[in-house]
Structures are given as C-alpha cells and as structure tokens.
## 1
Amino acid sequence: MQELWSGAPELDGADSEEQFVEVESGISLRVLTWTPDDASAACNDPVVVVPGWGSVFEGWRPLLTEWVRRRPIVYIETREKKSAVIVKKVNKTDFEMSKHGTDVLAVLNHLGIESRDVDWFSSSLGATLLIESYQSGVLNGHSSVLLAPNPDFEFPLWARMVMSLPIPRFIHPALMRFTVWLVDRRTKEEGQRIRYRRTLLAQDLNRMLMSARANMRYRLPDDLSRIDVPCAVMTASSDTLHDMDKVLSIVERIPGAVLIEVPSNQYAHEADVLVEIEQFHSSISN
C-alpha cells in the first residue's frame, strides 16, 4: 500500500510533480501538481483539489486525467493521511479542522498561488475544512465545488467509546478489518465501497484515530453568512455515508450556494462530472 502514498502519478498529456511542503515545524504535506502539455490549457488558473478524510489519489484518477487536459491541477493531501511527513510527537489537537485550513494556506503560499484566484474542488473533510476557512477568512476563492461536506462527524456511541480508550497497536489490524466490514455494510454503491475499502486499508491507523478523536466533537459553525466564495454543493441521494438532509442544510446556510445533485458518489469521481462542474463555472462567469 505504500505505493499509494509516494511518487508523482503520471497523467496523460501532463507533466507531474510531487513535493513535500512544510506547513509547520515537523509536519510536511504531500502535494501533487500536474501541468498540461497544451500551452493554452497550461496558462489557465489552477484547480486546487482537497480530497476527503484519508482519501487516496487513485480514487480521483478518472476525473483528474480528463480535467488536466483543460486546467493545471494542484492536489493537496491533508495531514491525517499516511503521506504526510510528521517528525514530531502529535496528538489529537494537531488534527483539528482549523489546522487543516492553515495547512492549505501554507501550501498555496509556498506555490505562489492567491486563494482568491482558485477554483476549488473538494470532498468530505476537504469540503468541510474549506467551508470553515471561507467563513473564518483564512481562505478565499474564485469558485468552490464541495462534494458531500460534513457539518459534523457523527460516530456511533460504541465507536466513540472505543476511540476514547487507549488502543494498543497490536489491535490496529483487527480494528481496521472491522471498520472495513462496517463500511461495506453501510455503502450501497459498489464503486464507493471499493474506494473506501482501498482507502481504509492504506492508512496509518494511529493518525486516523487521532484525527477521528478531533473530528467527533467538531461542528461546522451555524453562521456561514460571511462566505462570499461562489459555492456549489454536490451530493447524491444514493450516498448513504453522507446525510442528505445535513448537506442540504449547508446549502441553505451559505449565501448564494447552489445544489448539484449527481447520480452517485462514484459519478463525482469520474470525468463525466466535468459537465456539471463546468456548467457551474460558466454560470458564475456570466
């Protein structure tokens, strides 16, 4: 599974680069960038992608392979992922939502990108951290497509009880297998099930536990009225891992936000979803 977290994946028609950007002392994030070979496409402003909790690149390959023919892509892996280089002792406070927002800002600063010029694409935890960062003024943007954002991270009571206890490392493999089994049971979409299984098995479980402990008390602010980034919230009614009613409540709270409903969560990872994304981009440009 280590190959999922190292090297710059090659995409047809683009140059690829992997860098590790120090976002605070002792923590560096893996950042992947692709520049189209086509000179006219390479001159466009970049799309910055912030994927979900523990998400691995391979799940996004179909979408990004097509998108990079049109736009430069910057893909930022957040600090709970196995790819992050962490050389200091960390605890759950190092994985709080606000940390992720300042990390993303640090990456943009390193790359010389102004957040107000960015067309963002994000999913799950990535979408949540961007919403909080827009509201708090840490980040801005030209536009933002937010796939299945989480207003909170509700874990079952038994899971909260387990995560509150010290968990010896020798139990980690069995705990991960149990988690994969639970996700398989809850997920209707086969493509989503395969992605989540691959994602879970590729993780550093100790980091994921600390991140989960930080997230389980998190709530997105009720007041999102300060957000002035044009936002589209994307969701699928068939996605049983993200509560539709909660997603709709986010749409209602972000000024001017629009809802994009897609056939499935898997569809949002495929090249076909660019139709909906580019329609949204055109609507805010007119």
Note: The mean pLDDT is 86.
## 2
Amino acid sequence: MDIRQLKYFLAIAEEGQITSAARKLQMAQPPLSQQLKLLEEELGVKLVERGPRSIQLTEAGTLLRERAQQILEMADSTARELADLVKGVRGTLSIGTVSSSAATLLQDRLFEFHKEYSGIKFAIHEGNTYRILDLLNRGIVEVGIVRTPFNSASLECRYARSEPMVAVMTPDADWTHGRTAIELGELKQKPLIVYRRFEQLIRETSLENGFEPEFFCMNDDARTTLHWANAGLGIGLIPRSAFGLAGNGNLISKEIISESLVTRVAAVWIKDKYLSAPAKRFIDSFTGQ
C-alpha cells in the first residue's frame, strides 16, 4: 500500500463511482478498477460493495478512508514544511475573514506584517463565520479571522482586544442631542438593523436590560447593515471597527455602553494541524499588536 494507491482509493470513496473517480484522476477506468482490486487483495479485506450505478464503502473501507485522509494530509503537510525550510518565510498565506473584521485585519495587522515579511503573498477568502470555518475544515485556508461568538471546540484561537458595539444612524434619527455614547436601554422600540451573527448576543443582552429588541432587518453582512442604516431605514448595530467597511457618509455612530455587548476579533486554526511558516508568523503577529 503506497501513497498513490491511497489517492486512488480516496477518489473512489469521495466520488462513489469508479467512472467518476477515473475522470477526476484523469485516467482510464480499467486501471483504476485493477488498483482497487490489488489494494483489497493486499489488505485481505473487501473495501467496497459494487452496485450497478455506484459503490458503497464497507466497514473496512470507511476506516481506510479516514486513515487515508490523515495519511495524505500528513504527507502534504510534510512536503510543505520541507519546502518552507528550503524557501524560508515565503510563499502564499491563505486567510479567511468575515466582512466585519476586514477593516481591522487590513489596518492593524496585514500592513505591518507585510513590511516585516515582504516575501509572503496573500490569498483572501471572505464570507460569514460559518463559511470561514468550513474553509478551514476543508483546508482551503490556513487561518480564519472571525468574530466572537463562535464555537471554538475544534479550534486554536488567538484573540485581539475587545471592542464595543456601536449604533449607527442618520442625523435625522439621532435622539441623543450630540452625545457620543448611549445606554443600551435607549434602543428599546427602535427599529434595529443587525448582522445575524450578533442576534443572540443582542437579544440576550437586551433582555437582561428589561426589553425585547425590535429587529427590523436581519442580514448576513455588516456592510448590509451600514447600507440600510445609511438609507435611513433604522438603527444599525455593528462592531466599532466595522464602521468604515462601506459607504457611511450619511451616518453618525454612538458607542453602546454595555459590558456584555462587546465583541473580539480572533485568529483561528484547526487544532493539531500543520501550519506553514507564513501562517505561524502571522498568528504570532496577530496578538503582538
């Protein structure tokens, strides 16, 4: 059993058809079928049940798929680690980031990091927290930049400083008479525009303060919150550093005074997974600010 055979078997397991797997591997079907047969003979177990249209993994096949993924990932990680040693701190760093963290990432982290490690290039993937965590699990990005709250059970995390949430509104909607901060209770019965990731945090904090928040618009991007607030449709609630993400020329912001209504940016990566030299340097710099 070698790396090549494991790649062949994993393609078959993922595709569920030898024909599709052969197409994915850019090889003919008969040689691939023969490789599967040889692997079963070598291991002395039946790995798949062959049907007219697809194959099903046996118990042994399911176990081998899990082990093959681990072995191939380790082989790939080893190759990357050796390449890092040869090249030094160079290469491309793949980062996934949520929109509400983009401004902080660029202004406070990447600029200084690039000055110190000018040989590193970047591949940035944007999306909501669920997409970033999915990209991490699939190995498409090495490091994710997300905001609390999130499920950190399978992750290593480095946190930046906490920051408050702010209420953003047009001057016509401003009831504060020039104040730069507001109490959370002042948002009672206000039409709130909220990035869905913060719904639970805002609801729980509001209930603790004696009122049910009135969510006028729920969305999946902090920039949408800014656009809707800028149009005068309600009061947007966003992290303070996200204020500059989109056009806000018609908006003013008010810090919300609340010990609970805060959020933090975090750099996250999969536990016990190989990190390239660029990723390690970036993580070190993330909390060095």
Note: The domain at 3-85 is CATH 1.10.10.10 (Arc Repressor Mutant, subunit A).
